[in-house]
Amino acid sequence: MPGTRKLGRTTDNRMAMLRGMVTLLLETGKVDTTVTRAKEVRSLAEKMITLGKKNTLASRRQALAFITKEDVVKKLFDVTAPENAARNGGYTAVYRLGPRRGDGAEMARIVLLSEVEKAEKAKKSDKKPARRRAGKAVEAKAETAAETVKAAEAAAENAEEKVEETVAAAETAAEENA
Fold first, then answer.
1. Phi, psi of 84 (to 5 degrees)
2. Which DSSP string corresponds to 52-116?
3. pLDDT > 90 in the chain, percent
4. What is the CATH number of the domain that holds 45?
5. Which of 14, 84, 103, 144 could, after both became Cys, cross-link 9 (CB 3.0–4.6 A)?
């Protein structure tokens, strides 16, 4: 199934690792690994998505024979494959991340493009409510400022009344003393 890369492992060990990585990729939508492993996982994951697009009993059984979790196969046939129905291959993207700290191996992130599109839509939808929230925050600040001004005016009126009372009391005291 996969390419000719042996990845320094025996065939059984290599296939077990790739099956696990394909399962994880289809489950979470992204996997961080080395570049060569990512390239191998890409080909296998795209074959699984193509099986999911066929949506027959035989293709479901083939996917179950390779993918290690039944709920991931269900997600593949019910969610992932329909999202990629309009796409003719190229369901994944490999992004290079730079060298790994421990041994300097070149790292990469393999991502399902349908997950990337979901994230972009979420960002676009998050921006609009953020603006609305900002507008509400400005309105709330304006209301708070208006309440503060009203309270200050009321305090000023109370102070004027007290001053007038004090002046009137001083005048009556001056008249009594005079």
1. -100, 15
2. HHH--HHHHHHHHHHSS-HHHHHHIIIIIHHHTTT--S--EEEEEEEE-TTT-PEEEEEEEHHHH
3. 60
4. 3.90.1030.10
5. 14
